[in-house]
Amino acid sequence: MRDLILRQKQVLFFIIAGGLSAIVEIGSFKFFSTSLPHIFPRETNFHGIHYPLSNIFSTSCGIISNYFLSIWFVFERGKHSKRKEFAYFMVVSFISTLLSLGFFQIFYSYIFKDNIDLIVYTLSPEITSKIAAILLVSILNYSIKKKVIFNG
């Protein structure tokens, strides 16, 4: 019973840490996707890839915030040294970044074509695609980070 409660607590903290990291990632994506096209006009469509730098930079912001939230609130340090743990975290996050970028391209190009009006805020296809990609990749992230990196 104690293990079940601890596991649920960990999942809840992972969701909270992930939610905060997603806010950082989506907020920074909004900033980068509106700022970078003024500097790099091809940012909106670079050889068929939409917002590549915005995705990479915002995902990096989300990864860094998620790392610190994860080690402070979610997972216990475990089987690896801090250096090795950080390296593993970054490798998994790099793969997640590639997956997230791929899912974003699919969602943006084929699925989310119109704005979504939430009355108080309107979600653009870019933001909706980013949110969907984050949700999809976060499931994979939790499993791998728990089992491989931290004390599973």
Automatic annotation (TrEMBL):
Cited Pfam families? GtrA_DPMS_TM
What positions does the domain GtrA/DPMS transmembrane occupy? 14-150
Q: Which domain of life is it from?
A: Bacteria
Q: What's the chief localization of this chain? A: membrane
Q: Where in the cell is it found?
A: Membrane
Q: How does it sit in the membrane?
A: Multi-pass membrane protein
By its UniProt entry, which InterPro entries does this protein fall under? Answer: GtrA_DPMS_TM (IPR007267)
According to UniProt, the name of this protein is GtrA/DPMS transmembrane domain-containing protein
Keywords (A to Z) from UniProt:
Membrane, Transmembrane, Transmembrane helix
Membrane-spanning intervals of the chain: 12-33, 53-75, 87-107, 127-144
Q: Does the keyword Repeat apply?
A: no
